[in-house]
Design goal:
The protein is mainly α. It has helices at about 5, 20-40, 40-70, 80-95, 105-110, 110-115, 125-150, 160-185, 195-210, 220-225, 230-245, 250-280. The longest helix has 30 residues, at about 125-150.
Amino acid sequence: MSADTAARPAPPPLARVGRPRQMLDFYATVARTAVQEQFQYRAANYMYMIGMVVEPVIYLVVWSVVAEASGGEVGGYTPGGFAAYYIVWMLVRNMNIVFTPYGWEFRIREGQLSGMLIRPIHPLHYDLAYFAGWKVIAVLLWIPIAVVLALLFPPELTVDAAQAVTFFVAIWGAYVIRTLLLFVLGMVTLWTTRVAALFELYFTAELLLSGRLVPLDLMPDWVLRWVDLLPFRSTFGFPIEALVSDLSGPQLVRGLLAQAFWIGFGWVLAMVVWKRAIRRYSAVGN
């Protein structure tokens, strides 16, 4: 050992950062990257969002006509009530856009999954973080569209603090639940390449039983009994109802508890299915 080396002070020990702090940094970094990336494509994002206006506007016009023809309301919804429902619908719809199960075929075919497997973070965390960052752009783009729709279709909306807080929590809960469920659905790609029929069956059930096509309040009782057993209401209908419907405090709490249950169930299911599915993965090439 030379004299210079012996005299050099020892470097300070590396800071020991806990796992929660590491995950928080990871989520913040990926989300920030998603915001910057999607901001570069703001015109494409806006065109995409404008295209999504068509669906709720059709529902809104149809149900408003039905309400007016039925004496001013249907199932407690006036034309203004339907306007509030479908304007909030647009925000919830954009919030629960997550990585599609069809994308797993692309990840496998293009070799992206191989790269994700050598990272120290589970791919599910990457999807959660990236699409969460994308929501910042989605919400910013939704605001002017919501203002225009509110001018064309004046909504009847009265919101108190409990509803606002519940809605904020519920839309993120819906986002997490839908990410977990579609992650599990995407894992089917590792067993078979003919997955389109299964995916379409899932999305059809979601369309009918989530409150996306029709407010669940208008569904018959026997359908609602099935709805209570499935996760779709927690991913779509409940966040909207929390804001636009006159739900009581216990009903809001039950809705959040249902979301917590589906998040726990979805996470366990995703981990179990992932461990089994990834054993079937193989890749060749460079």
